[in-house]
Amino acid sequence: MKKIIASLLTALSLSAFAAGGGVAWDRFPPEKMSDMASLQNGAKLFANYCLNCHAAAFHRFNRLREIGLTEAQIKDNLMFTTEKVGETMKVAMDAKEAKEWFGATPPDLTLVARSRADGAKGSGADYLYTLWRSYYRDETKATGWDNLAFPSIGMPHVLWELQGERKPIFEERESHGHKEKVFSGRWEVVKPGLMTAQQYDSAVGDLVAYLKWMAEPQAAQRFNLGVWVLVFLGVFALFAWRLNAAYWKDVK
């Protein structure tokens, strides 16, 4: 019983750490979800930068055909750990070795765009969109990187070559009689990356769009079906109302 209570307390403390602190979340551009080119580019970024350490073990490669990719494109450009297009997205890295290297096993990302939602801050897509745009150099950290959206994050900045190196600009403000450093919302470019700031933001939007699609591939279909169900219920209610009025019109 003590072990169970201790596990629950540990889980609660970790959840609070993950959700607490950090900057306000930016809004993920929702138009990316209906852009096939964005989803395909997001899949490419995911396979090249994320799938080396993070699996998507509940998602199969052949589902990428639903975003317009051919089987040949999937095999030639996105599959590095298996040759069967019907396989799930697993990593070749051993879980025990990953825990020794990083201190914890990198989590599966199949549902990360849904599981990271916070009612007070935004959706899981908002969190991921902010996370990948909030890295900065910090030589005091083991990885050499820290993140404003997830302070003391264990994951290094895998997209740094695209974004470059930046330094957040803090301002000193007084709060409740104490002075504290607050992020000003501005960054200083230390070393330019391969992309401009606008290009990098767009690429991150593509990556997050893919993760959001992967978390629920049928979301668009479910939404469209929901609209037709509401239309049907509205028409049915109208007929029921008129039928009820006709049935009871002679009854006083």
Automatic annotation (TrEMBL):
Gene3D superfamilies: Cytochrome c-like domain (1.10.760.10). It is found in: Membrane. The chain crosses the membrane at residues 225-243. InterPro entries: Cyt_c-like_dom (IPR009056), Cyt_c-like_dom_sf (IPR036909), Cyt_c1 (IPR002326). Residues 1-18 form the signal peptide. It comes from the Bacteria. GO terms for molecular function: electron transfer activity; heme binding; metal ion binding. Residues 37-215 form the Cytochrome c domain. One of its GO terms (cellular component) is membrane. Heme c binds at C50, C53, H54. Its cofactor is heme c. Binds 1 heme c group covalently per subunit. Keywords: Heme, Iron, Membrane, Metal-binding, Signal, Transmembrane, Transmembrane helix. Its main location: membrane. This is Ubiquinol-cytochrome c reductase cytochrome c1 subunit. It comes from Inhella inkyongensis.
